[in-house]
């Protein structure tokens, strides 16, 4: 694998992934926050803190967002330095990023659960590993005459500038412990009042200490408040290597201390903890095996995407199962849940990453849906984009509907899912004004059967989103036996037709009087910054009706969409046609299957695997968005892809000769053999399911075909793809 993938790219092509360490799904994501030579901040390139093109490490912070297109988290900043004297230290503190260090990629090592880098300026080797809420640092100082070994703790640091609201740090020199907190209000956390991160740091053998405030050091002072404050520790002269433990909590300093003690087993060695953490990663990764002797790069991309997909959402419960709820109170997770999760970038992850978790780890998928329902219990409403312990209102739609439908339609939900509570929440979001994260006024939407443009300029994308959401709600109602109610939601799922302009053949905003407000010329149709559309243009939304199974699909227009999209050779700016890094385009390549042109799905899917995704640091087509793009690559390279909210997968063109997946904690194995595969044999001749022709091709069903416990009582499931250089044209059959 190559974990640099997704750490580079500019503008809309930035993968925005942090580089550092975490446990699978861990809340603590400890990594380097970097800057360029001139220390000129380019925010869009540093949403995850690290950018491959940079030359300097500013410091190491302990929480990060994971590939999102917005900044938040990134606090508890620490960096080791070497100084000549206190004057030297004062010079570092008084300058912006005055303690940063040059580094080189040749002196970096990055593995799941382990990171190493040499700080060239300070002559220190840094090693990092992490449990779910504890970061473990090991610093090895080069022996330089008359240099003092120092650790700087910038407790008021946040990755996003100027969002600290309150910060405090206290040094306990008797117990060799440093405690503190930072309350910050970032791009998302600020929407619900902010987040407090508490920390406890332990290390031994320091000789001196002090604090700083507004760029001025104060020797021997052990406590300071303020959003321009920090602390420093000067190690004993003989200390050339030091191990430091940093526990964080979103509950309290005492809980941070508990996390520290429990998760390090009372301060095991760095190497012991690293071994435990990396074994956790191996246990996850080794459940997936792919091979393609003719395309080793595909194996690298798959394994890297796997690590990225297993890195989120965020485990929110802390040691002993406690967590901070949406009601601001401390709760203990239910016994039927292994973990509580947050940082659910639902606008993104409902399409790929959560369906991937449903596919291979149903226990975790259930915990995620239970977490959403806990949000409802504590905050009264279904969330759009739950972050930490709050509602953010981020993005559009009510796509938690689709996540819930996906789990239920695949019959992977456990007996603890309260369907009565689920149905009440779905009815509310579709028909009432929520306090948090609601839709456009439901009564007006139901009256017009679309969102009027003169009431919301995002009329078309909102209507398209709600149509998909209501289809998912209909699925849940149907599964619950509420067939009449399901029919009503299925009727609402057709309301996308009301914003389709037959004159232009595009989805356009429509006002209360029924007049369309479409782009007026070709340039406007291709403007991805058109405020009438959300993160896209009219072309991007032309095909966003994933739940429409029509065989009369406008396949020629869809083909044009991809042909012209292939001509765009940069990710710096959005592709005005098919945009591989744009969420509502992710399903478009699979829609050829609806028109009996699965050959075109296979053709373009394979092209995208080879061209939109590479093994370079800028090898993602855009923000990974909590594993969304990575999970798209995983599904597509396996040769099938989910229609989220249903039990249906659509067949594509697998990128490997052999795929083996151990699912649901060894419950069953899916083995995929791909015969005659090659760079030119990209078309599927036929598919066998357990030795028999897949009669539903190009569709395959989770329940009837791939569900572990329902496949004729077989513990293993086998798919055989037979490939050819000649397309199979289903419409000729």
From TrEMBL:
Lineage: superkingdom:
Eukaryota
Q: Which GO terms describe its molecular function?
A: carbohydrate binding; peptide-N4-(N-acetyl-beta-glucosaminyl)asparagine amidase activity
- GO terms of biological process kind: carbohydrate metabolic process; glycoprotein catabolic process
**SUPFAM superfamilies with a match to the protein in the record:** Six-hairpin glycosidases
Domain Glycosyl hydrolase family residues, every copy:
255-704
Gene Ontology terms: cellular component: cytosol; nucleus
The chain positions of domain Glycosyl hydrolase family 92 N-terminal read: 2-249
InterPro entries, sorted: 6-hairpin_glycosidase_sf, GH-type_carb-bd, GH92_a_mannosidase_put, GH92_N, Glyco_hydro_92, PNGase
**Record PANTHER family:** PEPTIDE N-GLYCANASE PNGASE -RELATED, PUTATIVE-RELATED
Q: What is this protein called?
A: Alpha-1,2-mannosidase
């Amino acid at each position: 694998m190559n974990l640099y993938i997704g750490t580079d790219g500019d503008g809309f092509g930035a993968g925005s992934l942090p580089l550092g360490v975490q446990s699978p799904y861990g809340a603590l994501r400890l990594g380097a926050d970097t800057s360029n030579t001139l220390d000129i901040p380019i925010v869009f390139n540093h949403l995850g803190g690290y950018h491959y093109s940079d030359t300097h490490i500013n410091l190491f912070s302990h929480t990060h967002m994971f590939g999102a297109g917005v900044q938040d988290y990134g606090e508890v900043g620490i960096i080791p330095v070497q100084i000549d004297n206190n004057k030297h230290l004062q010079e570092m503190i008084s300058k912006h990023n005055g303690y940063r260090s040059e580094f080189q990629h040749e002196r970096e090592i990055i593995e799941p659960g382990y990171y190493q880098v040499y700080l060239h300026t300070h002559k220190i080797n840094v090693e990092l590993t992490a449990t779910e809420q504890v970061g473990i640092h090991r610093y090895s100082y080069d022996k330089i005459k008359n240099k003092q070994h120092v650790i700087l703790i910038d407790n008021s640091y946040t990755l996003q500038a100027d969002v600290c609201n309150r910060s405090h740090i206290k040094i306990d020199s008797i117990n060799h412990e440093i405690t503190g907190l930072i309350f910050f209000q970032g791009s998302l956390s600020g929407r619900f009042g902010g987040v407090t991160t508490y920390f406890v740091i332990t290390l031994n053998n320091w000789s001196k200490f002090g604090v700083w405030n507004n760029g001025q050091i104060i020797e021997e002072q052990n406590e300071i408040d303020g959003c321009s404050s920090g602390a420093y520790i000067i190690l004993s002269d003989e200390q050339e290597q030091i191990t430091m433990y940093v526990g964080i909590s979103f509950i309290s300093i005492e809980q941070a201390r508990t996390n520290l003690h429990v998760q390090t087993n009372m301060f095991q060695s760095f190497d012991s903890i690293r071994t435990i953490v990396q074994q956790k990663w191996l246990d996850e990764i080794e459940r997936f095996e792919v091979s393609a002797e003719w395309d080793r790069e595909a194996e690298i991309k798959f394994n890297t995407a796997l690590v990225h997909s297993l890195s989120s959402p965020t485990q929110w419960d802390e040691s002993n199962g406690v967590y901070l709820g949406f009601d601001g109170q401390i709760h203990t997770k239910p016994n039927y849940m292994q973990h509580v999760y947050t940082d659910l970038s639902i606008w993104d992850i409902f399409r790929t990453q959560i369906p991937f978790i449903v596919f291979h780890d149903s226990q975790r998928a259930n915990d995620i849906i239970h977490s959403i329902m806990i949000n409802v219990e504590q905050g009264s409403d279904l969330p759009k984009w739950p972050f930490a312990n709050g509602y953010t209102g981020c993005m559009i739609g009510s796509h938690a509907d689709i996540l819930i439908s996906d789990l239920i339609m695949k019959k992977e939900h456990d007996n603890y899912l309260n369907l009565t509570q689920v149905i009440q929440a779905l009815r509310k979001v579709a028909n009432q004004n929520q306090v948090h994260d609601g839709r456009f006024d439901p009564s007006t939407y139901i009256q017009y059967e679309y969102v009027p443009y003169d009431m919301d300029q995002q009329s078309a994308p909102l209507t398209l989103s709600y149509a998909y959401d209501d289809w998912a709600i209909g699925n849940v109602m149907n599964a619950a036996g509420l067939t009449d109610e399901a029919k009503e939601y299925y009727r609402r799922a057709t309301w996308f037709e009301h914003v389709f302009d037959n004159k232009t053949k595009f989805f356009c905003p429509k006002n209360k009087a029924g007049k369309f407000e479409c782009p007026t010329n070709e340039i406007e149709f291709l403007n991805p910054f058109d405020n009438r559309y959300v993160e896209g243009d009219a072309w991007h939304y032309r095909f966003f009706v994933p739940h429409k199974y029509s065989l009369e699909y406008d396949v020629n227009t869809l083909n044009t969409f991809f042909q012209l999209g292939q001509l765009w050779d940069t990710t710096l700016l959005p592709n005005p046609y098919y945009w591989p890094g744009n969420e509502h385009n992710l399903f478009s390549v699979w829609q050829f299957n609806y028109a009996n042109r699965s050959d075109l799905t296979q053709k373009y899917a394979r092209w995208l695997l080879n061209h939109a995704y590479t093994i370079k640091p800028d090898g993602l087509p855009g923000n990974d968005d909590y594993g969304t793009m990575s999970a798209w690559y995983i599904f597509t390279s396996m040769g099938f892809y989910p229609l989220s909210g249903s039990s249906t997968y659509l067949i594509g063109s697998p990128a490997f000769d052999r795929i083996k997946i151990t699912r649901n904690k060894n419950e069953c194995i899916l083995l995929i053999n791909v015969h005659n595969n090659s760079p030119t044999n990209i078309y599927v001749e036929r598919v066998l399911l357990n030795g028999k022709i897949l009669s539903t091709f190009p569709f395959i069903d989770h329940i009837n075909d791939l569900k572990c416990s329902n496949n004729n009582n077989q513990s293993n499931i086998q798919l055989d793809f037979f490939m050819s250089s000649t397309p199979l044209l289903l419409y000729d059959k």
